[in-house]
Specification:
The chain is an alpha+beta fold. It is built from 3 helices and 3 strands.
Length: about 110
């Protein structure tokens, strides 16, 4: 059995049921962002891009050009990684003392 609020599939769908009195309020205590696992290409893009941004202006033109080409070759995996859905969960303490932890942000309406 899947715990309440846990994704049922990779689609990010979730199922939960909680009956509360009308008008109950709470406080968001924590927001967690869960990034998908980074591929080797994504980590390499970040490393090379940082190197280019920080030291590219000091590099010899041939070395800088080579680094720019390496970064450009990894831009597609980087863009794909950025398009992936970021999973965000929250911990909410309701005024009645009930705590919802690791609940998907989609389950809540902002005030």
């Amino acid at each position: 059995m899947t715990p309440a609020g846990e994704p049922l599939e990779e689609t990010g769908a979730f199922a939960a049921s909680l009956a509360l009195a009308a008008g109950i309020e709470g406080t968001v205590e924590r927001v967690d962002e869960h990034h998908r696992k980074q591929s080797h290409e994504v980590r390499e893009y970040q490393r090379l891009k940082s190197l280019l941004d920080d030291f590219g202006h000091q590099m010899p033109p041939v070395s800088r050009k080579q680094l720019e080409e390496q970064v450009e070759a990894l831009e597609e995996p980087w863009a794909a990684y950025q398009r992936q859905m970021l999973r965000v969960t929250v911990r909410v303490r309701l005024d009645n003392g009930f705590v919802l932890d690791d609940a998907p942000e989609e389950a809540f309406a902002s005030a």
